[in-house]
């Protein structure tokens, strides 16, 4: 797991006005805490911080440089603007190399399930405990060939070396349902129509117009258009 180096600046002013000025200057207000030390208020370069999250994931390991001193830290919480999605504030947790920490890691599905099998995702992240400097960006869950009923629980997921599962092992990660048949869909539609009071037209119903009991008169021969007198004269 790569770590990203960010040069921080100490913050001595607080409040919304100060935070806005910090952001206008291209920096993000942040706090650094953990290991029993006092909370440190600082700011981080916005562009570099965004790049670290983009390339290192939500549990990115940072090397924060403040007043010439380096400190390893993990991102514990990040606030973003709901409209612009820009970062507004960050909480950083102090960690040490070799230290175990608990984090939520995103689940990534790979492979294709079996034919007529529909995956139903239940968990998007798994909580694990691992070395703070060896945290995975994602955890892959292989669904290749899975059919209806072959569900995957947290305990079934293969974790990276050195990681321990914190999520309940029996928690459902992905369930698999059988694709409905045409008959099942037709029955479901008929039931819904019946509940709504909709009556279906019977197929093969008699078309409008001539019925089986109607008598159709033969058309009269109009001939060539000559009158009867002319025919008799011929």
Automatic annotation (TrEMBL):
It comes from the Bacteria. Pfam families: Ribosomal_L25p, Ribosomal_TL5_C. Residues 6-92 form the Large ribosomal subunit protein bL25 L25 domain. Keywords: Ribonucleoprotein, Ribosomal protein, RNA-binding, rRNA-binding. One of its GO terms (molecular function) is structural constituent of ribosome. InterPro entries: Rbsml_bL25/Gln-tRNA_synth_N, Ribosomal_bL25/Gln-tRNA_synth, Ribosomal_bL25_b-dom, Ribosomal_bL25_C, Ribosomal_bL25_long, Ribosomal_L25_dom, Ribosomal_uL5_bac-type. The keyword Membrane does not apply. Residues 189-234 are annotated as: Disordered. GO terms for cellular component: cytosolic large ribosomal subunit. GO terms for biological process: translation. Residues 100-174 form the Large ribosomal subunit protein bL25 beta domain. PANTHER family: RIBOSOMAL PROTEIN L25/GLN-TRNA SYNTHETASE, ANTI-CODON-BINDING DOMAIN-CONTAINING PROTEIN, RIBOSOMAL PROTEIN L25_GLN-TRNA SYNTHETASE, ANTI-CODON-BINDING DOMAIN-CONTAINING PROTEIN. Belongs to the bacterial ribosomal protein bL25 family. CTC subfamily. This is one of the proteins that binds to the 5S RNA in the ribosome where it forms part of the central protuberance. Part of the 50S ribosomal subunit; part of the 5S rRNA/L5/L18/L25 subcomplex. Contacts the 5S rRNA. Binds to the 5S rRNA independently of L5 and L18. This is Large ribosomal subunit protein bL25. It comes from Geodermatophilus pulveris.
